[in-house]
Design brief:
Low-confidence stretches: none
Number of strands: 2
Radius of gyration: 17 Å
Number of helices: 10
Strand order of the largest sheet: 1-2
Shape: globular
Protein backbone atom coordinates (compact mmCIF):
# COMPACT_ATOMS: atom_id res chain seq x y z
CA UNK A 1 0.00 0.00 0.00
CA UNK A 2 1.15 3.52 -0.74
CA UNK A 3 1.01 6.29 1.85
CA UNK A 4 -1.96 7.68 -0.10
CA UNK A 5 -3.84 4.38 0.32
CA UNK A 6 -2.98 4.24 4.02
CA UNK A 7 -4.02 7.84 4.58
CA UNK A 8 -7.39 7.35 2.87
CA UNK A 9 -8.15 4.20 4.85
CA UNK A 10 -7.13 5.84 8.11
CA UNK A 11 -9.13 8.98 7.34
CA UNK A 12 -12.21 6.84 6.67
CA UNK A 13 -11.86 5.16 10.08
CA UNK A 14 -11.45 8.51 11.79
CA UNK A 15 -14.42 9.97 9.93
CA UNK A 16 -16.65 7.07 10.96
CA UNK A 17 -15.61 7.48 14.59
CA UNK A 18 -16.32 11.22 14.47
CA UNK A 19 -19.90 10.43 13.54
CA UNK A 20 -20.64 8.34 16.63
CA UNK A 21 -23.48 9.58 18.87
CA UNK A 22 -21.13 9.41 21.87
CA UNK A 23 -19.03 12.17 20.34
CA UNK A 24 -22.08 14.41 19.95
CA UNK A 25 -23.23 13.66 23.49
CA UNK A 26 -19.87 14.68 24.99
CA UNK A 27 -19.31 17.66 22.69
CA UNK A 28 -19.17 20.26 25.45
CA UNK A 29 -17.47 18.05 28.05
CA UNK A 30 -13.76 18.17 28.92
CA UNK A 31 -11.67 15.92 26.70
CA UNK A 32 -8.78 13.66 27.65
CA UNK A 33 -6.44 16.52 26.69
CA UNK A 34 -5.71 19.43 28.99
CA UNK A 35 -7.52 22.69 28.20
CA UNK A 36 -9.53 21.19 25.35
CA UNK A 37 -13.18 20.18 25.28
CA UNK A 38 -14.34 17.15 23.31
CA UNK A 39 -15.91 19.19 20.53
CA UNK A 40 -12.74 21.14 19.73
CA UNK A 41 -10.73 17.90 19.89
CA UNK A 42 -13.12 16.36 17.36
CA UNK A 43 -12.84 19.48 15.19
CA UNK A 44 -9.04 19.21 15.32
CA UNK A 45 -9.30 15.58 14.24
CA UNK A 46 -11.61 16.55 11.38
CA UNK A 47 -9.12 19.19 10.26
CA UNK A 48 -6.69 16.42 9.35
CA UNK A 49 -9.02 15.76 6.42
CA UNK A 50 -10.46 19.22 5.80
CA UNK A 51 -7.09 20.95 5.46
CA UNK A 52 -5.75 18.57 2.81
CA UNK A 53 -7.63 19.76 -0.32
CA UNK A 54 -6.48 23.39 0.17
CA UNK A 55 -2.93 22.14 0.67
CA UNK A 56 -3.11 20.32 -2.67
CA UNK A 57 -4.19 23.56 -4.36
CA UNK A 58 -1.82 25.99 -2.65
CA UNK A 59 1.19 27.36 -4.57
CA UNK A 60 4.51 26.11 -3.24
CA UNK A 61 6.55 29.04 -1.97
CA UNK A 62 8.83 27.56 0.69
CA UNK A 63 11.93 25.41 0.51
CA UNK A 64 11.24 21.69 0.68
CA UNK A 65 12.60 19.99 3.80
CA UNK A 66 12.81 16.42 5.00
CA UNK A 67 10.33 14.93 7.44
CA UNK A 68 12.88 14.96 10.27
CA UNK A 69 13.71 18.61 9.58
CA UNK A 70 10.00 19.41 9.56
CA UNK A 71 9.59 18.05 13.09
CA UNK A 72 12.78 19.76 14.21
CA UNK A 73 11.36 23.10 13.07
CA UNK A 74 7.87 22.50 14.49
CA UNK A 75 7.51 24.31 17.80
CA UNK A 76 4.28 22.52 18.81
CA UNK A 77 6.31 19.42 19.68
CA UNK A 78 7.85 21.06 22.76
CA UNK A 79 4.88 20.21 25.00
CA UNK A 80 4.34 23.81 26.13
CA UNK A 81 0.56 24.23 26.31
CA UNK A 82 0.97 28.01 26.55
CA UNK A 83 3.14 28.35 23.47
CA UNK A 84 1.87 30.56 20.68
CA UNK A 85 1.31 27.68 18.28
CA UNK A 86 -0.49 25.43 20.77
CA UNK A 87 -2.69 28.32 21.89
CA UNK A 88 -3.50 28.98 18.23
CA UNK A 89 -4.38 25.32 17.60
CA UNK A 90 -6.78 25.33 20.54
CA UNK A 91 -8.38 28.59 19.41
CA UNK A 92 -9.06 27.50 15.84
CA UNK A 93 -10.32 24.13 17.07
CA UNK A 94 -12.71 25.83 19.47
CA UNK A 95 -13.91 28.13 16.68
CA UNK A 96 -14.51 25.18 14.34
CA UNK A 97 -16.39 23.25 17.04
CA UNK A 98 -18.99 26.02 17.38
CA UNK A 99 -20.52 24.72 14.13
CA UNK A 100 -21.63 21.62 16.04
CA UNK A 101 -21.12 17.89 15.73
CA UNK A 102 -23.15 17.37 12.55
CA UNK A 103 -21.44 20.17 10.63
CA UNK A 104 -17.93 19.09 11.67
CA UNK A 105 -18.65 15.48 10.75
CA UNK A 106 -20.21 16.48 7.42
CA UNK A 107 -17.20 18.63 6.53
CA UNK A 108 -14.84 15.75 7.26
CA UNK A 109 -16.98 13.40 5.15
CA UNK A 110 -17.06 15.84 2.25
CA UNK A 111 -13.29 16.25 2.38
CA UNK A 112 -12.84 12.47 2.44
CA UNK A 113 -15.06 12.07 -0.63
CA UNK A 114 -13.04 14.70 -2.47
CA UNK A 115 -9.71 13.19 -1.45
CA UNK A 116 -10.74 9.70 -2.53
CA UNK A 117 -11.12 11.16 -6.01
CA UNK A 118 -8.09 13.45 -6.02
CA UNK A 119 -5.28 11.79 -4.10
CA UNK A 120 -4.83 8.66 -6.25
CA UNK A 121 -3.99 10.93 -9.17
CA UNK A 122 -1.31 12.82 -7.24
CA UNK A 123 2.42 12.09 -7.33
CA UNK A 124 3.65 11.21 -3.82
CA UNK A 125 6.94 13.04 -4.38
CA UNK A 126 5.36 16.33 -5.50
CA UNK A 127 5.94 19.28 -3.18
CA UNK A 128 3.08 20.74 -1.14
CA UNK A 129 3.06 23.97 0.83
CA UNK A 130 2.29 23.64 4.51
CA UNK A 131 -0.47 25.90 5.87
CA UNK A 132 1.33 26.19 9.22
CA UNK A 133 4.98 26.68 8.29
CA UNK A 134 7.02 28.63 5.73
CA UNK A 135 8.47 25.42 4.29
CA UNK A 136 7.15 22.63 2.07
CA UNK A 137 7.17 18.83 2.17
CA UNK A 138 6.64 16.07 -0.33
CA UNK A 139 3.03 14.96 -0.44
CA UNK A 140 4.08 11.59 0.99
CA UNK A 141 5.76 13.24 3.98
CA UNK A 142 2.84 15.62 4.49
CA UNK A 143 0.38 12.71 4.54
CA UNK A 144 2.67 10.95 7.02
CA UNK A 145 2.25 13.91 9.37
CA UNK A 146 -1.53 13.67 8.93
CA UNK A 147 -1.40 9.93 9.68
CA UNK A 148 0.32 10.74 12.95
CA UNK A 149 -2.35 13.29 13.82
CA UNK A 150 -5.23 11.02 12.85
CA UNK A 151 -3.93 7.99 14.72
CA UNK A 152 -3.04 9.85 17.91
CA UNK A 153 -6.16 12.02 18.06
CA UNK A 154 -8.61 9.20 17.30
CA UNK A 155 -7.25 7.55 20.43
CA UNK A 156 -7.57 10.86 22.33
CA UNK A 157 -11.17 11.21 21.20
CA UNK A 158 -12.01 7.62 22.13
CA UNK A 159 -10.61 8.19 25.62
CA UNK A 160 -12.62 11.40 25.87
CA UNK A 161 -15.97 9.72 25.15
CA UNK A 162 -15.32 6.45 26.99
CA UNK A 163 -15.23 4.30 23.85
CA UNK A 164 -12.80 1.82 22.40
CA UNK A 165 -10.73 3.38 19.63
CA UNK A 166 -11.47 2.05 16.16
CA UNK A 167 -9.18 -0.49 14.58
CA UNK A 168 -6.70 1.52 12.56
CA UNK A 169 -4.87 0.15 9.50
CA UNK A 170 -1.71 -1.72 10.57
CA UNK A 171 0.34 0.37 8.15
CA UNK A 172 -0.92 3.56 9.80
CA UNK A 173 0.07 2.26 13.22
CA UNK A 174 3.48 1.15 11.93
CA UNK A 175 4.08 4.58 10.39
CA UNK A 176 2.95 6.48 13.47
CA UNK A 177 4.94 4.34 15.89
CA UNK A 178 8.01 4.63 13.68
CA UNK A 179 7.76 8.43 13.58
CA UNK A 180 7.20 8.65 17.33
CA UNK A 181 10.16 6.37 18.02
CA UNK A 182 12.42 8.52 15.86
CA UNK A 183 11.23 11.66 17.63
CA UNK A 184 11.74 10.02 21.01
CA UNK A 185 15.29 9.03 20.07
CA UNK A 186 16.05 12.60 19.00
CA UNK A 187 14.63 13.94 22.27
CA UNK A 188 15.86 11.36 24.78
CA UNK A 189 18.62 9.41 23.02
CA UNK A 190 18.67 5.88 21.68
CA UNK A 191 19.66 4.16 24.98
CA UNK A 192 16.62 5.59 26.78
CA UNK A 193 14.23 4.42 24.06
CA UNK A 194 15.88 0.99 23.87
CA UNK A 195 15.58 0.52 27.63
CA UNK A 196 11.99 1.70 27.71
CA UNK A 197 11.04 -0.85 25.09
CA UNK A 198 13.10 -3.79 26.32
CA UNK A 199 14.18 -3.37 29.96
CA UNK A 200 11.49 -2.29 32.40
CA UNK A 201 13.97 -2.33 35.30
CA UNK A 202 16.15 0.30 33.58
CA UNK A 203 13.43 2.20 31.75
CA UNK A 204 13.39 5.99 32.14
CA UNK A 205 10.33 7.60 33.66
CA UNK A 206 9.20 8.76 30.22
CA UNK A 207 10.28 8.67 26.60
CA UNK A 208 7.35 10.74 25.37
CA UNK A 209 8.06 12.02 21.88
CA UNK A 210 5.50 14.85 22.02
Amino acid sequence: MTVIDVYLETAASACAFLGLPAVAERWDDPSALARLRTGPLAAHLASQLVQVPPVLDAPVTGDRVSLSEHFARSTWTDGDLDSEVNTYIRRISEDAATAGHAAVTDAAGAALAQLRHRLPAEEPDRAVQLPFGPWSLTLADYLTTRLLELTVHVDDLAASVGAEPPAMPPAALDTTIGVLCRLAVERHGAPAVLRALSRAERAPRTIAAL
